[in-house]
Amino acid sequence: MAGPGGPGWAPPGGAGGEGPAAPPPPALSHLAADGSARMVDIGDKPETERRATAYARVELRPATLAQICARGTPKGDLFAVARLAGILGAKRTPDLIPLCHPLPLSCVEVAIEPEGEAALAIRCTCATRARTGVEMEAMTGAALAALAVYDMVKGLDRAAAIAEVRLLEKSGGRSGPWRRGES
Amino acid sequence: MAGPGGPGWAPPGGAGGEGPAAPPPPALSHLAADGSARMVDIGDKPETERRATAYARVELRPATLAQICARGTPKGDLFAVARLAGILGAKRTPDLIPLCHPLPLSCVEVAIEPEGEAALAIRCTCATRARTGVEMEAMTGAALAALAVYDMVKGLDRAAAIAEVRLLEKSGGRSGPWRRGES
Amino acid sequence: MAGPGGPGWAPPGGAGGEGPAAPPPPALSHLAADGSARMVDIGDKPETERRATAYARVELRPATLAQICARGTPKGDLFAVARLAGILGAKRTPDLIPLCHPLPLSCVEVAIEPEGEAALAIRCTCATRARTGVEMEAMTGAALAALAVYDMVKGLDRAAAIAEVRLLEKSGGRSGPWRRGES
Amino acid sequence: MAGPGGPGWAPPGGAGGEGPAAPPPPALSHLAADGSARMVDIGDKPETERRATAYARVELRPATLAQICARGTPKGDLFAVARLAGILGAKRTPDLIPLCHPLPLSCVEVAIEPEGEAALAIRCTCATRARTGVEMEAMTGAALAALAVYDMVKGLDRAAAIAEVRLLEKSGGRSGPWRRGES
Amino acid sequence: MAGPGGPGWAPPGGAGGEGPAAPPPPALSHLAADGSARMVDIGDKPETERRATAYARVELRPATLAQICARGTPKGDLFAVARLAGILGAKRTPDLIPLCHPLPLSCVEVAIEPEGEAALAIRCTCATRARTGVEMEAMTGAALAALAVYDMVKGLDRAAAIAEVRLLEKSGGRSGPWRRGES
Amino acid sequence: MAGPGGPGWAPPGGAGGEGPAAPPPPALSHLAADGSARMVDIGDKPETERRATAYARVELRPATLAQICARGTPKGDLFAVARLAGILGAKRTPDLIPLCHPLPLSCVEVAIEPEGEAALAIRCTCATRARTGVEMEAMTGAALAALAVYDMVKGLDRAAAIAEVRLLEKSGGRSGPWRRGES
Question: What's the rounded Cα separation, in Å, for the pair A82 and E131?
Fold first, then answer.
């Protein structure tokens, strides 16, 4: 299967192959000048309070949603399993995302609730006091909670899928607060 | 934040709260009769060849795609980082998805290619000879490769997001081959 | 602090220091003849079905037990957190217990219930088809579930403690079934 | 197996089912108001020096104790294996205990010595400078050292068991020093 | 720093840049035709008994060697720590070496002994019954035991270093037995 | 196999067995007075900027080097795989080297380049602000990058081996800067 860089493959937009014309685009900070992957040096950045929230949505059939919510109400562990998968996953981020820095998370919360009649919405919020942000921790936590939901419903509902994993907002650091849809 | 089961919360579809009427829906195999999470007993299932492919899509701005593909062409590690995040993630599935069984993966492949002008498509294929399937390994591998791409482009393209993570096909096991859109 | 082998330390029972008299005691299989730790070679043992159940007891004040069971009844995640800590811990046994072999667990179950008015009883059952047993997986699962309960109640009940972690029964392998109290 | 919350199950002490009468008991900090598990937010707590010691006891037959101490004296790795299992386990606490925060441990020590003629006593001490305490690191370290001892002696002494894992003392943090038996 | 593929960098031997002339060299099995890293598919290979031994040498000053051996003789944990680092490292190979398959190791042994007056020799032997070999498990175990020795002596002996990590022999699999220096 | 401490084994240099004569050598800080392994208490040391660089060399046949550099130039992931194995390995150091402290790495870089006609040179640099140094992180990163290279070339070049893993320089901490060959 020919991937980027394979024989005969051309990047979309045409200009890619020769390199972009002036002005040069902002650099990808995870790649050195020669293209090598690296963990960016954050040693000179100040420690500040950082917070980020990511959102994931699992789409499933209305009957599946009704069943897991019914089960969930009095006694079932399904939502608890997904919350824990998210919390544990957020803590594991530097092990899973190769270029992420290890951060001393001060808080992880995962909230799960129905969204309409055929989806579950997952929100994962992480916080720390550190030299870099916790976006990836929030994204990884939301994605793993969603994967755990999918794992538990896939036997009932083969067409279930994760429909979205995206950052909702973040604060702290030089670039200040950001919220999806506002920039 | 009131989640499922919180005070005043009602499941969508109405019937959920009282439990579904007859006939009873198929059980969630990861929950025991009393709702407790468990790792399903697969000891009596035969070992068969299993294979599954999952798909994830990362949406980004056309300029971002052009830039990373340009970088990717001659020398950049971006695609390699994402492929490895997917391969390593697939191998760690039983650590990450609480109720998954450990499986001796015989193969993991992650392919990444542009899809249109504003997305990267990621396909992760896993195989094993085991008593249960590798759907979660393929899904976890695809999701982690997508998260790694997001990590590397988020500094350039704040609105980038994972737009989808879903199973494309699987084979092996009692239920036989399945392909999205055909059942 | 003088440990075994420290200066002036003598083993209980007297005979220890000079080495036991005839007949020699059965060897510790995890130590080579010169005392070096090793992972025992199980390559020549046949694969058989193995199963083991371990038990742990967490002692707490009656008021604490009443409170967590009240919370547990309608909606709380406390028991689910402990069950998952046990299941995930059982899967990670070869990483945690240095001389354990990696085993393809086919099942892990953790059951938790009140025992009298001031304790929770935890039972962890593991199964596999392998060349060695799953006693350590069951013991590790029970211990980690108990530690997770302790973690959640320690703020309420400082005197809570784990009172016991022991094997209840096992089956499979050359030595056949064994049940505590019967041999 | 009916666990808490299962059909027909009633909490001990009677009052549990309806919830305790006034005054309300102190909350379980690991559960949100709706019962969801969460990693408590410690972002506002000051960093202070924290220290904790936990104790575990492994009970075994006098002959087993004599044998492992004899072996231990000149050359055997048994005590070293248990100490390392405890040290490595303490470092892994946030991976194993779902709601624990990652902490930069500044010290872990595991001491093992005979206690009477039929037990080994294990003490694990951990220290850090952080926003929360190291009780769980000490408890996890003691429990894993005890499990490693059990693993190595179980072939000789089937009735061996872990008889206790409990916190002995802790210091640092808002609540100040605490020592078992003094409060 | 210009790495391979960086601007102005030319491979040694001249022919590299344009690609080798006929006949083509044997392929690197870990790279697909387009250069993408992948975990090789071993699903069609038969399970056979596999065994491999790797060797590492740590060079240190004679005084350091005399000191750690003196300590090691009656009571010290230094050699035990290194043996366990090797055993645990061998078990974690698929987590550490990105393209390695998970294998059910049936045995790991690490032997350490002085070699001349200024070195320690480490030999790590691994075995399994699997579809691929255990060379990387043996190499990783030997390297981690050597790193653990270095960690413990570096405060005494700054010039200590790992002088070699190499495979000594392997058996099992299609290519049959191999021993360094014989082929 | 008789290791140190085994029957009939004598340490080199003669004096070892009885213990060294006066003056006593500097202590091994990882061993307590009775020889027990421990994680050294660094709680009283100040936090300072720390940096270390380690070097590893993989020796291979000139034809192998030419082939992987040719592949590496336009598209191959080989160097990227090795860089990531090094970066991920450096982050995992406290899990792998039993007595290492967990450190919040602020930077990891792995550079790989040909050295002469038959070797690859790997340099791994780590940095942190912490109470202890990052020598082991740099050493572990360099060793794991070298192991990953070996894994990928071993099918082509059976005699390939890691020829060296050593610290090049470090700075920060009480003992100040150090550079190999200068002390």
Answer: 34
| Token code pair at residue A172 | 């702290």
Looking at chain A, how many residues does it have? Answer: 183
Contacts of residues E22-28 at CB distance under 8 Å and 24 or more positions apart, as own/partner, are: E25/F63, E25/F67, E25/F156, E26/F155, E26/F156, E28/F67, E28/F68, E28/F71, E28/F76, E28/F78, E28/F152, E28/F153, E28/F155, E28/F156
Average pLDDT, chain D: 85
| Distance between CA atoms of residues B135 and B133, nearest Å | 6
Closest-CA residue in chain E for C96? E88
More confident residue, C40 or D35: C40
CA distance E133 to F121: 26
Among chain E residues, CA nearest to F18? E70
Contact: C85, D96; criterion CB under 8 Å? yes
Identify the pLDDT of residue A116: 97
Share of chain C above pLDDT 90, in %: 69
Q: Given this structure, which CATH class describes domain E57-171?
A: alpha beta
**Domain definitions of chain B by residue range:** 57-171
Q: What share of chain F is helix, strand, coil (3-state, %, to 5)?
A: 30, 25, 45
Q: Smallest Cβ distance to F5: which of D49, D74, D127? A: D74
Contacts of E40 in chain B (CB under 8 A): 107
Element (H, E) at D135: helix D135-153
Band (pLDDT 50/70/90 cuts) for residue C24 is low
Of D32, D98, D104, the CB nearest to A87: D98
User: How many angstroms away from the CA of B86 is the closest CA of chain F?
Assistant: 12
Predicted ipTM of the assembly: 0.87
Give the closest-approach CA distance of F169 to chain E in angstroms: 10
Mutate which of E29, E38, E137 to test chain B, going by most B C-beta atoms within 10 A? E38
How far apart CA F58 and CA F68 sit, in angstroms, is 13
Alpha-carbon gap, residue E52 to E138, rounded angstroms: 6
- Scored b (16 or more CB within 10 A) or e, A61-100 reads bebbbbbbbbbbbbbbbbbbbbbbbbbbbbbbbbbbbbbb
What is the per-residue burial (b if ≥16 Cβ within 10 Å, else e) of E158-174? Answer: bebbbbbbbbbbbbbbe
Structure tokens at E100: 């390695």
Answer whether B117's CB lies under 8 Å from A14's CB.
no
**Residue F11's pLDDT band (cuts 50, 70, 90):** very low
Q: Is D95 a catalytic residue?
A: no
The 10s digit of each residue's pLDDT in C58-71 is 999 999 999 888 75
Q: How confident is the model at residue E47 (pLDDT cuts 50, 70, 90)?
A: very high
Interface of F with D in 103-122 (CB under 8 A): 103-104
Q: Do B95 and C110 touch (CB under 8 A)?
A: no
How many Å apart are CA F29 and CA A7, to the nearest integer?
56
DSSP assignment, residue C118? Answer: S
Overall size of chain E counted in residues: 183
* C-beta separation of B122 from B63 below 8 A: no
